[in-house]
Design brief:
- The chain has about 170 residues and is mostly helical.
- About 85% of the residues lie in helices and about 0% in strands.
- It has one domain (about 1-150).
- It has helices at about 1-25, 30-70, 75-100, 105, 110-160.
- Helix 2 runs antiparallel to helix 3 (about 75-100).
- It is elongated, with a radius of gyration of 23 Å.
Length: about 170
Amino acid sequence: MIAALLIGAVGDNLNRTIVEMPAWRALGADAWAAFSRLADLGNGRILYPVAGIGSMMLMLVAAISFRLSSLRPWSAAVPVYGAVLMNVVVILLTTQAAPVMLSLPRLGSDPVALQQAFESFYRWDSIRAVFGALASCGQIWAVVALVAHSGATWRRVGASRPSPVDATGTQSRS
């Protein structure tokens, strides 16, 4: 299940860079711009900021919660803090990619300007995709480390628990 999550997360993050943008390059910057105006600047104008900023904020809250917990396992520290760092890098790279995307309406149909916008967006989005994939891997790694730790803690605690009490009030021997 973890391998499936990793493959899905990495694939989702790298999809635009590896699959979509090369196809858009073949179709041309004008076709890419027309699609982006409808998709990225349509419904994506709401979904992308909510997902990107929301993900980063939730990871930040998780890292703060992890730091303040007295039961934090060291095995989860690197992936928790690493995922936060990768999410912050994604947001910083978005500050470079987003203005290019947001400039598309004012570029009109100028082929040179659209080609420059396409190349600039492709560059920043590709770098951002790598850090997004790393953030997703860190998040999955952190969950695995935390679940493994909680399972070990439960087994230790479970071993010291008294035997269950039956309906008559006496302890049963299992």
